[in-house]
Amino acid sequence: MPELPEVEVVRRGLADHAVGRTVSSVEVRHPRAVRRQPGGAPELASRLAGRTLAAARRRGKFLWLDLTRDGEPDGAVLAHLGMSGQLLVQPAERPDETHLRVRVRFDDGGSELRFVDQRTFGGLTAVDTAESDGETVPALVAHIGRDPLDPRFDREAAVGAYRRRRTELKRALLDQTVVSGIGNIYADEALWRARLHSLRPTATLTRPEGRRVLDAAAEVMGEALAAGGTSFDALYVDVHGDRGYFERSLAVYGREDEPCPRDGTPIVRTSFTNRSSYWCPTCQKAPRKVR
Predict the structure, then answer these.
(1) Catalytic annotation on 285?
(2) Is 168 marked active-site?
(3) Which of 69, 73, 122, 184 sits in a 20 to 30 Å window from 214, CA-based?
(4) How far apart are CA 86 and CA 106, in angstroms?
(5) What domains, with CATH codes, occur in the chain?
(6) Choosing from 61, 101, 146, 200, which is the catalytic residue?
(7) Is residue 2 annotated as part of the catalytic site, yes or no?
(8) Report field, pTM of the whole predicted structure over 0.85
(9) Active-site annotation holds for 3
(10) Which of 143, 144, 231, 154 minimizes the C-alpha distance to 185?
(11) Does the pLDDT of residue 197 top 60, yes or no?
(12) What is the pLDDT of the chain when averaged over all its residues?
């Protein structure tokens, strides 16, 4: 799934090309794209038509557009990108994409907002909003923690929350309720930069180590954002369909048997839930019981 940098790239594109425009109509071309919407396609169309996209916002990997009607807040539309979802701003005359699922037209008659999703795991949902940590956010996002790139992120509180947990460090990094935005790719990259192993018990983590891994996560995600994100295939793109190129800068993720950039040791891949972890056995010492 796209992680924080990839979602932020899309958010910025929407802020530049969709925010401030008023929806004239919504066309749903596949029912799975609105399966999370009570009332389905008619309800989504009804809740968006006549509304202005007031802001493009994000918390961690969660992306939404604030809606207003006659200048007053009126909920939001939450975008679930899933495994292959794309939000594209396309000229109205451009031919439909093969996997076009939802089309949003605007009253200015200009470019359209299109939700394209090859695997149909994602979708759009018009939702109510609620107060969370001093912000108005979709109710479905209220339990999500802030991310390391958020100006209001509390690093010390996050470190304390990790140290109180009885779990492994990578599992803690992927827990979006504590710190959001870190997915499998950037967890591995942050752990490598911090010289910490994914199976390190969080209860043994020192505060300096906790700060180090969170700072590493912020650093690597900031670099990925500057590169347009990580695109392993043609599915993770910005609103114009352009790919990111941070893949070429990854130190360990997807680099099994390649030399560690720090010490030359071959990178190891191990199974992690239904995914993989990549790490250097020399500079990321495994906990004793694992060794």
Answers:
(1) no
(2) no
(3) 122
(4) 18
(5) 4-141 (3.20.190.10), 155-279 (1.10.8.50)
(6) 61
(7) yes
(8) yes
(9) yes
(10) 231
(11) yes
(12) 92
